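Long-time lurker, first post. I've been practising inverse folding by hand and with some scripts of my own, and I keep getting stuck on stretches where the structure tokens seem ambiguous. Below is the full token string for one chain I'm working on. Before anyone asks, I'm not after the true native sequence, just a reasonable design that respects the backbone. If someone could post their per-position residues I'd love to compare against what I wrote down in my notebook.
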């Protein structure tokens, strides 16, 4: 398949205090474990099924070393698996008899903070054809061929296909969910696919006290639907045309000047405007370039692209919408309750395939729906159910752990009860403590006999500067779900003169 895949690794501010967005005590978001596997490995496995021509992992400089080391180990394992398959018959070949090879995985250090700027300034020069943008945090049982087929059969005037999914888990904290109002046209009475038209965050609607649906939109798409139940999957399948549309002016000019130096006039255009060519199946009209500000999160780039279809007098290309079927599992681990649910889902999948038991002491009960990492010590009369225990952990006598995620190098002393808890790396939980629906930051020491419910136990960071002091938590509020700076849906539409009186 000729699709390129780009996996964008954010800082994971909404997974604080377990990510680097919180401080040095956290992990890179892409490396948070789900069922004792790095989060990004599930995305890489999904890409392996799709057989993309190239997979590029994009992350900031602060995550670069950690992620590259993890990718190296992942690739070594995959190469070993492929070599093993190659030695055992024809199952290791494609339909054409070509031996299977691991999908090439490359790493790129991003220089910009905003995902939109990364796409425009850093990714566009690398794109050679149609491509897909992926987050590093999703787990799904829906095969990639479903997505690809939907994209291949898209309408001719669709620049890209945005993916939405419905939340199927009652355990999610609605306050943590990043809800938005998705405005789209279902096109039920036509052969056209659904089209994304606009999106507003819940915060923006609550601030303005109403949903700002434009008259332009309703006149052009009278059968418009508004849904608050659709969550953004941050998966975008894009046509190569989008490269030409978003390409910075200076980059287009540079290419134009290079081609103008060629002696053969038939080899290429000489002006930046001539570089914008219609896609192969739409020769009727030429792509119209509009000024689009890309210094913002990537989901806002596609929201602005969706608005192009109705806010201009001249028709513009549309953004298709693919709503995932509710029967298939799809979950983004971009908030803490979703991260815990992703762990539970993978534990149930493992337990349905085969029972896995970790090291057992005298009288221990370790359920088949639990995973215990390497080099763990579990003393007698303990109970671990529907939980993940990382590597090098020590769990004392008569401890009860249910529905929890324990990261690496954690010590839990005797007679502790943990229910629906995430405990960060190198933490310690004192004797006879009871934690329920809580989060413990890495390297935090919970005092003995502590009883908490629904709380986050974190260190307090104070940063002093010449302008004054601030806390680390205040900076976390300025991050979006991708880990990049948040800006609200507060831009006003410019009057394009379509309905001048």
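-- Answer (accepted) --
I ran through it position by position. Result:
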């Amino acid at each position: 398949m000729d699709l390129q895949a780009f996996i964008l690794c954010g800082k994971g501010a909404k997974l604080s205090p377990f990510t680097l967005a919180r401080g040095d005590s956290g992990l890179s978001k892409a490396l948070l474990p789900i069922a004792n596997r790095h989060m990004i490995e599930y995305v890489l496995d999904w890409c392996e099924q799709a057989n993309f021509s190239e997979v590029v992992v994009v992350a900031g400089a602060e995550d670069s070393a950690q992620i590259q080391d993890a990718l190296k180990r992942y690739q070594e394992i995959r190469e070993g698996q492929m070599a093993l398959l190659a030695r055992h018959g024809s199952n290791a070949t494609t339909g054409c008899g070509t031996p299977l090879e691991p999908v090439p995985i490359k790493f790129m250090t991003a220089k910009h903070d905003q995902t939109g700027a990364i796409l425009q300034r850093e990714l566009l020069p690398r794109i050679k054809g149609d491509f897909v943008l992926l987050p590093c945090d999703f787990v799904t049982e829906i095969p990639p061929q479903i997505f690809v087929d939907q994209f291949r059969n898209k309408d001719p005037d669709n620049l890209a296909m945005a993916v939405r999914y419905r939340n199927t888990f009652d355990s999610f904290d609605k306050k943590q969910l990043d809800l938005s109002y998705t405005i789209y046209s279902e096109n039920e009475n036509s052969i056209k696919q659904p089209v994304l038209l606009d999106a507003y965050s819940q915060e923006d609607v609550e601030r303005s006290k109403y949903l700002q649906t434009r008259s332009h939109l309703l006149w052009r798409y009278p059968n418009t639907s508004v849904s608050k139940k659709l969550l953004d999957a941050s998966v975008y399948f894009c046509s190569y045309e989008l490269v030409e549309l978003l390409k910075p002016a200076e980059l287009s000019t540079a290419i134009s000047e290079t081609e103008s130096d060629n002696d053969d006039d038939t080899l290429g255009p000489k002006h930046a405007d001539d570089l914008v060519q219609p896609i192969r199946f739409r020769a009727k009209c030429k792509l119209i370039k509009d000024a689009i500000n890309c210094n913002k999160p990537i989901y806002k780039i596609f929201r602005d692209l969706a608005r192009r279809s109705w806010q201009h007098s001249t028709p513009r290309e549309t953004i298709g919408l693919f709503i995932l079927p509710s029967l298939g599992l799809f979950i983004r681990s971009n908030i803490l309750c979703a991260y815990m649910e992703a762990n539970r889902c993978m534990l149930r999948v493992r337990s349905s395939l085969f029972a896995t038991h970790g090291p057992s002491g005298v009288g221990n009960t370790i359920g088949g729906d639990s995973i215990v990492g390497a080099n763990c010590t579990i003393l007698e009369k303990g109970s671990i159910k529907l939980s993940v225990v990382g590597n090098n952990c020590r769990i004392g006598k008569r401890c009860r752990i249910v529905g929890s995620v324990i990261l690496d190098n954690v010590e839990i002393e005797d007679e502790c009860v943990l229910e629906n808890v995430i405990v960060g790396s190198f933490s310690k939980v004192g004797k006879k403590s009871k934690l329920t629906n809580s989060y413990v930051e890495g390297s935090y020491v919970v005092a003995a006999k502590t009883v908490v419910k629904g709380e986050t136990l974190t260190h307090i960071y104070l940063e002093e500067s010449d302008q004054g002091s601030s806390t680390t938590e205040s900076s976390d509020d300025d991050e979006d779900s991708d880990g990049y700076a948040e800006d609200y849906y507060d831009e006003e539409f410019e009057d394009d003169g379509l309905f001048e009186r």
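A couple of notes from the structure itself: Residues 61-86 form the longest helix (26 residues). The first strand starts at residue 4 and ends at 8. Happy to go over any region you disagree with.
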